[in-house]
Amino acid sequence: MTRHLAPAGWRAAALGVCLVLIAAPSLARGPASVADVAEGLQDAVVNISTTQTLKGTGEPVPGRRGPKGSPFEEFFDDFFDEEDADGMPRKVSSLGSGFVIDPSGLIVTNNHVIEGADEIIINFTDGSKLKVTKILGHDPKTDLALLKVEPKEPLKAVSFGDSGRMRVGDWVMAIGNPFGLGGSVTVGIISATKRDINAGPYDDFLQTDAAINRGNSGGPLFNMDGEVIGVNTAIISRTGGSIGIGFAVPSNSAVKVLDQLKQYGETRRGWLGVHVQNVTDEIAESLGLQEPMGALVAKVAPDGPAAAAGVKASDVILKFDGQVIDNMRDLPRAVVGARIGKDVPLELLRDGKTMDVTVTIGRLPEDEEDEVEEEEEVQDQEDPALPAPDGEDLLGLSIAPLTDALRSKYDIADSVEGVIITGVEPDSPAAQKNVKPGDVIIEVTQEEVRQPQDVVTRLQAVKRSGRGRVLLLLSDAKGELRFVAVPTS
Question: Which residues form the active site (predicted)?
Fold first, then answer.
């Protein structure tokens, strides 16, 4: 018999495990098997292969080939064609995962799996294949797509569960097609919920340590009842291999999107018509809030539902349809799921007092027209900066009326009105908050300013009140707004 010796550290660890198992024989066979659950689900999970014709460049495509001598070298050679030397168009194949949600032939996957594909083939575990006859709809914002095939017999399908019931530590199982290895099953736990990974405005991911690799995209994440509670969509990895940080679109979000794709062929999201930002500790202090909460309205679309309801810039939205808005990210998630045309109550904070308004939810415009602005010749001249009266401290700012000459110099849009900042002292309170020359002060402590003296008056009032910070509403040259809380000393 050949005996292999492990490093000492490994032997010590193994001995420790053995001691535990001896002390607790009931654990000797490990955790309960998931074989019964997996066996009933694998037939509904599919391998999705796509083919796309790319215009040739005459250059090889980097990153398409497996490592020399690796087990996957031949696999990559089979699925990624070399670029023709003469730069002729070529076909590129890719692989992903999906799952059947209706026996008649409805299949869910990620949008990025099928985006740009000329042909989509669904490969089933029994070796059969079906060509996708129609993309019923796709949504890049949530990375979901709904496909249609025409089976001769009903397909094995799975159902969605309630992702809202999942808790950190709950067991989950992923089934998919990593590196072309169809039907691979991995098990882990929910590592986090409501995870924001800066992928888009509606980030609300489930995070799991179940192994998810390239090719798992679009596959299902199951709970231990065999229900789909997530659609695997992203991983954090430098190599493309799993390091135990994977993300899935929660089923409660996916179902709403997929229902709309099935019914309309597109998503129809609710729209409030506001741009919001987080209420930081500093902004909360400047507004007189005891703690940061809500979504601070930085801009209101002139023709949007919020404007019609009387919502104003500098309002803080505390509740939407009875749901507490703890931070900025909560608001778009709540609005997007609201029924278009529904009257929804909002609780606002304005001038230190709470108030209620009712807004009728509109439909989010899918296409935004680009604003085209003509470039004007900039004339170089001295800025008419306002000196601080009687040694008055302007937070390290030099300010001036917004004249036509200054509009031209800083390329300020005609729609922007206020007091322009022409200089910022280095290391001043304003400089530390990234306030720059060319920014326009729209409001000071939630009151509009149009002349430099308005700014001075508001700053003096803040200092007399004893507040340690002043809240400025600033606009950049294009009219994008942001709130900044600047220390007064």
Answer: 112, 143, 217
Residue 116: inside a domain = yes
Angle at 435 between CA 431 and CA 438, to 5 degrees: 125
Verify whether residue 143 is a known catalytic residue.
Answer: yes
The answer on pLDDT for 21 being more than 90 is no
Annotated active-site residue 217? The verdict is: yes
Query: Do residues 141 and 172 both lie within one domain?
Result: no
**From the annotation, which residues make up the binding site?**
112, 143, 215-217
475 is catalytic: no
Q: Is the pLDDT of residue 457 over 90?
A: no
Q: What is the mean pLDDT of residues 410-433?
A: 88
Counted domains in the chain: 4
188 confidence band (pLDDT: 50, 70, 90): very high
Q: How far apart are CA 199 and CA 479, in angstroms?
A: 24
- Same domain, yes or no, for 75 and 138? yes
Q: Do residue 277 and residue 250 come from a single domain?
A: no
Which of 94, 217, 314, 398 is flagged as catalytic?
217
What integer pLDDT is reported at residue 14 of this predicted model? 39
pLDDT value at residue 61 = 45
pLDDT classification of 443: cutoffs 50, 70, 90: confident
Tokens of 36: 């019964």
Q: For residue 195, give its domain range.
A: 163-264
- Same domain? For 168 and 260 the reply is yes
Is 313 within the bounds of a domain?
Answer: yes
* 44-69 pLDDT, tens digit each: 999 998 887 766 554 444 443 444 44
Structure confidence at residue 196 (pLDDT): 76
Same domain, 281 and 254: no
Q: What is the pTM for the complete model shown?
A: 0.62
260 & 355 share domain = no
Q: What is the pLDDT at residue 220?
A: 95
Output the known binding site for substrate: 112, 143, 215-217
